[in-house]
Design goal:
mainly alpha
Length: about 325
Amino acid sequence: LFGAIIYFLVLMYPYLKAGYKFSFKLRLNYEPLKKTIKLMLPGIPGQAIYEINFISNRIIASFLGVGSISYLYYANRLYQFPLALFGIGISSVLLTSAAKDASNNDLKMLLNNYYDTFKFMAYFIIPITLLSVLTADKISLLVYQKSGEFNNKTTIALQCYLLGLLAYAGANISAQIYYSLKDTFTPVKFSAMNMLLNIVLNVLIVLIWQNNDTRFAGLALSNSICGFIYLFILLRSLKKRLKILDLKLLFFYCLKIFIFSIIALIVSYLTIRFLNFTKFNIVVNRLLNAIMPLFFGLSTYFILTLIFKVDFSIKIWYNITKFFGFRSKN
């Protein structure tokens, strides 16, 4: 509650500074208000769809043994962090520029902003996904400080959730293009289809999952599979709507990033095999065992992308050298 209040005050401050005055008068005939409500209405069931999806997962998990709901919940908390940072957060930034381009009927600039945002997301999400899947047990152990069965089962669920990270981050970014075009219904329609498919896949995967002790992880895997189907449907519909959309550009960029990430994954794996911290207290050991594979893996990834002149790495390196005074600030 305190965080929500601070969030509201931070957002309100620029308006007050600019001289706006707030009042509690409600004018239902105010045209911008009517337009906003009309655009918001399809988004309301969209939020309900997400909750229904989550509830259906919990219901099915309740039949899969003691602790299944908890393992999924704790794994989902860890999964939500990179999704919120590189999926939802970045997509929110895109909406402002995309809405401006759409209102100016500048589709070329709209798609250029979309390409840049999607590539920016993929640049971070793909290596983070692969490295996090590899070190999921160490991340879970560090955050929750619980070993044994709890850590093992939370790790499996987390790994299955992480597989769909790119899909849901990409879907969040792609949905902003629809919103900028004042189409709030299409993403909700596809989200409803995704919900129904997720329920069906939940049942199917749980039924064919061989290990009874980890069957709950099938629900997380179903969520990831549905994420890629959801992204595919969004992009396919967007391509039909915007003929000049170049999906090959995004595909080959993601493929290039994936190759660099695989090499970084190998380095991270070797770090785990040959570097194990045991000399410090238990918390420090867990911290170093979780961070060092990620550090060496991400460092390898950054060096590779810098060598092969990936645009975001060049920008990051330029800002680093400028910050430490290796370049003229002019």
